[in-house]
Amino acid sequence: MALVVERQGGAAPASPLTVERFLADGFALRPQLASFLQIAPQELERRLPSSTDDLAALHPGAFDPDRVEQFYEDAVGTGHLLELAAWHLGSADYIADTLRLQQRFAAGQVLDFGGGIGSHALAAAALPQVEQVWFVDLNPHNRAFVEARAAELGLAAKLRCFRDLADPALPPRFDTIVCLDVLEHLSDPARQLEVFAERLSPAGIALLNWYFFKGFQGEYPFHFDAPELVEAFFRTLQSQFLEVFHPYLITTRAYRLA
Ligand SMILES: C[S@@+](CC[C@H](N)C(=O)[O-])C[C@H]1O[C@@H](n2cnc3c(N)ncnc32)[C@H](O)[C@@H]1O
Question: What is the distance in A from the centroid of ligand 1 to the CA of 32?
Fold first, then answer.
């Protein structure tokens, strides 16, 4: 399905943010990131391959599990932009399936919680059945980058960025909640599920995944993996939400309120 998005002011060409377009160029991710970081394209290519290791190298010095929000807000800086860009470009087929899933379910008021570099928020904003996307992320560089991307892609009117869910400008309820590869970064993911249950509209859908594992080579040192935290997460998930079948063979799941 081709989704044609009109540019603000009408001067620039329309931008169809299809899954195919994501597979082709990640929604112009490389030039947008080089421009945002004010580095040459060659420098971006040099830095992308080591971005996961560079982020992991912040651990344990900068990562305090008791002050995890401070880590994502202050310590990570632009490191997550590079790491997420390398991942979305290098695992584009996987990300594309999550975009297909989002396209199937997203409608109305969409929350992208922990939205990172904005691939899902931008694609959602380009869907005609989506009225507004609310991008929430603690990292100010991520928010600034996604705001710049939305403006460049003609989507600024449909995508707004916020630090956290307490902002009174956000709607009380969302028709769709997208929270991908975020829950394992939270010190209390069960509590986050309760917040999602409170903020999901009665007929709404939440798209969630998680990876409570530090990696076979310890490559994800920031992921929480304590058994009691994981058990509390699944108890809350299973008491508050009911899974909705979807046909994509990926770890991301769709839920409605139980
Ligand atoms: C691994 S990234 C995932 C990004 C994106 N959802 C994706 O699928 O590519 C985790 C994101 O969650 C954000 N984050 C971590 N803790 C958060 C919190 N408490 N509230 C909002 N965002 C948070 C980080 O800044 C980061 O952008």
Answer: 20
Residue identifier of the C-alpha nearest atom 1 of ligand 1: 181
How many structural domains are present in the chain?
A: 1
Residue nearest to atom 13 of ligand 1 (CA): 114
Task: Tell me the pTM.
Answer: 0.94
Nearest atom, ligand 1, residue 76 CA: 25
- Flag whether 6 is in a domain: no
Positions of the chain with pLDDT lower than 50, given as ranges: 1-14
What is the CA(255)–ligand 1 centre distance, in A?
A: 20
Q: Per the domain annotation, does 10 fall within a domain?
A: no
Q: For position 12, what pLDDT does the model report? A: 43
HEC string of 152-185 equals: HCCCHHHEEEECCCCCCCCCCCEEEEEECCCHHH
| Contact partners, residue 171, CB within 8 Å, separation at least 6 | 109, 132, 134
pLDDT tens across 3-26, in order? Answer: 333 334 333 444 589 999 999 999
